[in-house]
Design brief:
This protein is α/β, with parallel strands linked by helices. 36% of the residues lie in helices and 26% in strands. The chain folds into 2 domains: 277 residues, Zn peptidases (Aminopeptidase, 3-Layer(aba) Sandwich); 113 residues, Alpha-Beta Plaits (2-Layer Sandwich). α1 crosses α9 and α7 crosses α9. 47% of the residues are buried.
Length: 396
């Protein structure tokens, strides 16, 4: 039996156990930076398999090692563990028991697949050189991001990975398929907080006030020029204000208006320039209309760049494992991923895992109360991750 068949058989054999692991994690979601019981559960599973690990990294993060039969490359495999503040509305037996918390982004699947891949790799550790490092990461969903904090704590010490691999569920893609995008794949993501201060008063006497609502509205509209008139047409850029608070009344203009939003782009140089342009524009408009403006930008995740060489090899390996017709080429996405911090440090690739049932006419979208997966996808997820890791290690 060759290595591909061995991994596929192991994925089939392990599936019932890994399925239960996924369901347990799904049923007990924990929010970013609070994944204490999740981490404890993962450590118990690793301990039973005699896989060495170190816990408590950046709070709840875990780093485990599986050593091969001699010196060689080091491959890092990463999964995120945190859930979202969403009330689950599914009626499945494994629905969340924690009110207001839900694995609505598939991190339960990522964690379960990494455990499954670890079991497969551990079973085959005498068949490959080098080492595999398993990273169970907290807080992908919340800035500053668990990846950034784990790296700040010198996660790998002297044993730096030669490459890193991560996967993420993709609800529009059918089970059995995976997808890749070389180069820039996911956008940077920054949080924007704007506070406009004027002089409140009676809405019927606008000449006696400095209308913070009107001024904030001018700023909101004008900021879109950053995207439409300053960003290069070839550089995808998004500026969205999702929250605007003016706590007045039908006849009361409040003294202060606050706005919150997100800024995303696919170019780091333009990202910095846009920050300055936004601040200058907002402050100038407020000042010109007799008000003041505080503009805060909380820098989030950088652009996720999939290393072209590692991606090309991974595509080749994946086609061997799954078949040419089951490996897709993806387009860029304006969503963000803190795996980008790892990708800044080490040659990396993040690929997408199809989790859509064959009969499902419409995909269940991420970050929604009804999100769920075709659990058969777990076989593809853990098998592909193990295969990619061992294929990279076995390559001279």
């Amino acid at each position: 039996m060759n290595l591909k068949e061995t991994i596929q058989n192991l994925a089939d054999e392990l599936f019932p156990e890994i399925l239960e692991i996924r369901r347990f994690i799904h049923q007990h979601p924990e929010l970013s930076f609070h994944e204490y019981k999740t981490a404890e559960y993962i450590c118990e599973v690793l301990g039973k398999e005699n896989i060495a690990y170190r816990s408590g990294i950046a709070g709840t993060g875990i780093l485990a090692d599986i050593e091969g039969r001699g010196n060689g490359k080091i491959v890092g495999l990463r999964a995120d563990m945190d859930a979202l503040p969403i009330q689950e509305e599914n009626t499945v037996d494994y629905r969340s028991v924690n009110d207001g918390k839900m694995h609505a982004c598939g991190h339960d699947v990522h964690t379960a697949c990494l455990i499954g891949a670890a079991r497969i790799i551990n079973e085959l550790k005498d068949q490959f050189p080098g080492k595999v490092k398993l990273i169970f990461q907290p807080a992908e969903e919340k800035a500053p991001g668990g990846a950034r904090l784990m790296l700040k704590e010198n996660l790998f010490g002297e044993e730096k990975p030669d490459l890193m691999i991560a996967q993420h569920v993709y609800p529009v893609m059918y089970t059995g398929r995976i997808g890749f995008k070389a180069g820039k794949y996911m956008a940077s993501s920054d949080e924007i907080y704007i506070r406009v201060r004027g002089k409140g008063g009676h809405a019927a006497m606008p000449h006696q006030i400095t209308d913070s609502v009107l001024i904030a509205s001018h700023i909101l509209v004008a900021l879109q020029q950053i995207v439409s008139r300053h960003a290069e047409a070839s550089t995808p850029t998004v500026l969205s204000i999702g929250k605007m608070m003016a706590n007045g009344a039908v006849n009361v203009i409040p003294p202060e208006v606050s706005m919150e939003g997100t800024f995303r782009t696919m170019d780091e140089k333009w990202r910095k320039e846009a920050h300055s342009r936004m601040i200058n524009m907002a402050e100038s408009i407020a000042d010109g209309m007799g008000a003041s403006c505080e503009f805060e930008i909380v820098e989030g995740y950088p652009v996720l760049h999939n290393d072209p060489g590692i991606t090309a090899k991974s595509i080749q390996f994946a086609r061997t494992y799954l078949g040419n017709e089951y490996v897709d080429e993806l387009d860029i996405r304006m969503t963000a991923e803190d795996f980008a911090f790892f990708a800044q440090e080490y040659p990396s690739v993040l690929y997408r895992l199809g989790v859509r049932k064959p009969e499902q006419a419409h995909p269940l979208e991420l970050h929604t109360p009804h999100f769920d997966i075709d659990e058969e996808a777990i076989k593809t997820g853990m098998g592909t991750m193990a295969w990619l890791a061992l294929s990279h290690l076995k390559e001279a």
